[in-house]
Amino acid sequence: MNHQERLPEFITDEIEKGNPLLQYVQSMPAETIAQLSRPASAEVFQVVERNIIGLLGALPTEGFDVQISTTREDLGRLLASAVMSGYFLRNAEQRMAFEKSFAIADSDATAE
């Protein structure tokens, strides 16, 4: 079985269409993908977690036996959405840090 035979249909369709980003991600070593997949901060992790819980439903575990059924493709889409949300939030977090550091540098420059 080759690598593409194990991938969900929506991903193999993108590869066949020549999606360069998907091809690039597939060419990455597993260690790099694992490193990129880790949340950068607890705040980003919490927002992504809340987003996924919101998508799946947030019934409390006590008193409910919650089971979620889905297809492989839909689960792949959910995971892709979570990853994209994580990247977006990480970029927003970096921008916020840059803006704070620029504000501090600007206030230091005007104080002199």
Please characterize this protein's 3D structure.
The protein is 71% helix and 0% strand. The chain is mostly helical and 112 residues long. It folds into 2 domains: 1-38, no CATH class; 41-112, no CATH class. The longest helix has 40 residues, at 72-111. It is flat. Mean pLDDT is 75; it is low at 1-5.
Number of strands: 0
| SSE succession | HHHHH
The percentage of residues in β strands lies in under 5%
Shape type? flat
**Number of contiguous helices:** 5
Number of domains: 2
**Computed CA radius of gyration, to the nearest angstrom:** 20 Å
The major sheet is characterized as: none
Distance between the termini: 67 Å
Structural class: mainly alpha
Helix content: over 70%
Query: Ranges with pLDDT <50 over ≥5 residues?
Result: 1-5
Overall pLDDT metric: 75
Quick structural summary:
It is built from 5 helices and no strands. With 112 residues, it is mainly alpha-helical. Helix 4 (42-56) packs antiparallel against helix 5.
Please describe the structure with a list of short key phrases separated by commas or semicolons.
112 residues, mainly alpha, 2 domains, flat, disordered N terminus
Any chance you could write out the topology, listing elements then pairs?
Blueprint: H1 9-16, H2 20-27, H3 30-37, H4 42-56, H5 72-111
Helix pairs in contact: 4-5
